[in-house]
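If you are new to this repository, start here. Below is one unmodified record pulled from the training split, so you can see the exact layout before writing a loader.
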Amino acid sequence: MVKVSPSILSADFVNLERDIRSLGPAGADYVHVDVMDGLFVPNLTIGIPVVQAIRRISPLPLDVHLMIDRPIRYVERFCAAGADILTVHVEADTEANTLEALRKIQAAGVRPAISVKPATPAEAVLPYLDLCSLVLVMTVEPGFGGQSFMADMMPKITEIRRYITEKGLNCEVEVDGGVNEATGRTCVEAGADVLVAGSAYFKAPDPAAFVAALHGLDTHS
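And here is the target side for that same chain:
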């Protein structure tokens, strides 16, 4: 079954606890937490104290996406704050530091993950795959919610899925950016296992029905 990870970047921050508590009853699988530093991406969002607060109120796994420069500096603190999956970007540091960051995440008992921006080719994930339990493919430019879906990223998803299959790895492929029921089907057909939905989830008239529709998409059809 396809997993659904609603992005709280599109939640009502005045009522963040309410919106996060609603994810479980709606059938969501993960809570997607976008962390931005204003350097790696041109926006600032939430940090470690908010992740700690979310951990206290949510029974769902926290899918924490670090869109920050040189994440090796902070990965252990985000693990301690309560991340269950912790994603760093290929583009955010040197290969050596990124590998070390993933090892630190793994050593903390958290699922390590790697992400690629739209302009980054699929093969950029290859040095990291053996350490990762998830690869996040961005289908918008990271930094802001509500952007349009980039359908030309589908071959990248398929290629990464092929790498994972060839290596025999237990590694999910997640897609983030402009995901709704229609684009979600396109992603799943390309090889995605996990769909991040922000605006489409929080603006849905019936979020539970939206999640159920994504869950119903056939994987790797």
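Two things worth knowing about this chain: The longest strand covers residues 31-36. The helical segments are 16-21, 48-57, 75-81, 95-107, 154-167, 181-190, 199-202, 207-215.
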